[in-house]
Amino acid sequence: MGQADDRGAAGVAARGITRVPIFFVNAYLIDVNPDDPSAGWVLFDTGLAGVGRVELQSAAARRYGGRAPRAIILSHGHFDHAGSARRLAELWKVPVYAHPLELPYLTGRSHYPPPDPTVGGAFAMMSRTFPYRALDLGAAVRALPEDGSVPELGGWRALHTPGHTVGHISLWHEANRTLLAGDALVTQNQESWTTTMTRARELRHPPAPLTTDWHAARQSVHRLAVLRPNVVAAGHGLPLIGPDVASQLARFANDFTPPTRGRYVHQPVYADNRGVVSLPPRVPDPVGRVLRGAVAAASVAALFAALGRVKRRT
Q: Over the chain, what is the mean pLDDT?
């Protein structure tokens, strides 16, 4: 698979695009005109709350002298992609754009479905701690145009790629054959603790514990494969660049396989422009039960230890 420059806190993902890693998730600074960085830029995703703001302000200072972007575009509203959106929009006084079906989760009207740790794997294990409450971006958030155009970014298209969330989008630049996939797919194996750390490049399905419609996710990957990109930069993992990327993506789409188990694997979440309408029933989570029992036991032990210390002092 193709490789990309990954030196420093921010790396070049493609011409006119800078990848900013924020722990386990990526945000992207996109030049409005790759031949002239002074023409301005647009931010795609904002990373985690707090640290995303710090890292993105730092990267913007290095690349653009601290100038604000023209807009913020969100692939979707999960905590790791939109966590710093409101704070950055307020600081920079810029609008935030998302797909209309994603707006309920960005205006406080609907929470996301809870994560599904029963799909298994490293990322799923961590997902038990992930927040899924709605964000409220206030007056800053706006719907992306229905024609697929991207505000402030001529030459780019917003592609509706649902599955991970109902209103998920990816960004596509036809002339440069560059795909910013968001979480429609990832470029590392998040099921493995080892590859989560080493970040070896590998095309994989969207983050499993937060994907709520696997049929739609498969269709979205097929739609992206038809584009035959030379660059694939995702929300998780290192970018893939080179003439072999299109064939790699085509094979991945043909072999796309959802997890074998999980709450949303065989029955999707039903959601519309109101937000979540109905959820599939819960499935057994024996690992979670054990973990909750261990936490409860540890809490009781800590309480008795504290009581013992108090008794000795008295």
A: 89
DSSP code of 117?
Answer: G
By the 10 Å C-beta count (0-12 exposed, 13-18 middle, 19+ buried), 37 is classed as middle
Determine how many CB atoms are found less than 10 A away from the CB of residue 8. 10
Question: Please, which residues have CB within 8 angstroms of residue 305's CB and are 6 or more apart in sequence?
Answer: none
CATH of the domain at 83: 3.60.15.10
State the residue range of the domain holding 301.
285-314
Q: Is 192 in the same domain as 312?
A: no
What are the beta bridge partners of residue 234?
Answer: 182
Residue 236 covered by a domain: yes
pLDDT band of residue 307 (cuts 50, 70, 90) is: very low
> How far is it, in rounded angstroms, from Cα 103 to Cα 13?
28
Sign of CA dihedral 127, 128, 134, 136: negative
Q: Are residues 196 and 312 in the same domain?
A: no
Is there a domain that residue 228 lies in? yes
Sort 44 into a burial class: Cβ within 10 Å, 0-12 / 13-18 / 19+. Answer: buried
Q: What is the number of structural domains in the chain?
A: 2
